[in-house]
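Might you be able to check the backbone structure tokens below? Thank you kindly.
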Amino acid sequence: MRGGVIPAALQLASTPAAAVLHAIRVSGPVTRDQLAATTGLSAATINRQVHALAAHGLIAERPDLAGPKTIGRPKSPLTIDRDSLCVAGMHIGARRTVLVIADLGGRTLHSHVVLTPSGDQQEAIGQLCAQLAELAGRFSGRRLLWGGVAVGGAVDVETGVVDHRVLRWHQLPVGATLAARLDTPVSVCEHVEAMAAAELLLAGPRDGSGTGLFFYARETAGMAMTLEGRVHIPERGAGTIAHLPVSAPVLAPGLTRVRLQNVIGDDAALAAAQRLGIDPDSSRIVDERARVLGEAVALIRDVINPDTIVVAGDAFSAHPRGLAPVQAAFDEASTIEWSLEIAPSRFGVHVQESAAVVVALSVIYADPIAAVATL
């Protein structure tokens, strides 16, 4: 088939084909013997999966990479095909949208940022889809496999329909619009869930066991949870942490009910700076924001008690001392006795880009043979 909306698969897959593709992607070039040792699959199963993946153009034999004393196919290195295939994705933010083209391994080939259009919602999504299609057209020498959209708001993953309060989008068919424009299957996912998936799927070898929390804070705030290598996607859509009550006398003085969403963005910092006659990057402002974030993360930590916590977004990274003030506030506020270090996203300032890419690749990674066979 061409086109259509397919739900993203935000998980570490365990099918033989997925396991072999994953091992080649993160460790290649690798031989069949090394694949058997890495995956625990039998030599016969490895050979079947390698044959099927190669037949669909996802991997390639690279005898030119073999050592001088290695002879025969079992010793011939295997790599993913980084030269013939690509995916297209976009992360739609409240103010800016990231457009990106990536190869099968998740490596960015090109990306750039455009302003998220305001006004009529159909015109806005049509404009963004046209811009992504134009960007994909520059890579006509590659076969475009899939499209992906990471976006805030409420996302119906089955249909790709989006409601976004800030953008004033209501029942907007984002997935269908992009699928028609690209003539490929498309997946659409809530953006913080996609960022959490990127940590699992794109950041190289990582133990996905246990429970993890992923927090994002920029102009908006969100949280996602991973359970045993799978991003938890609630049946009725992602929840919110924007309403969490906070104490912020510098950023929001005089208010009886202050919410996390009110104090984390640049607008709140600028308003406080103008009111106080100080710089937006002054310690009074950035220290309070770091404290608020640390306390908010600690509150959720105490409820769920995860094994890991990862954070991303400008609100977390804006302090001159990095995450140290957030960690200190977290340690002070959490009531759980054992310590837990807050880790930054391994994608840094490219976290939105990684979210778009992983949504476009997730179905292929989860079931590569079935996904590509339908194209």
The domain at 16-80 is CATH 1.10.10.10 (Arc Repressor Mutant, subunit A). The two ends are 5 Å apart (CA to CA).
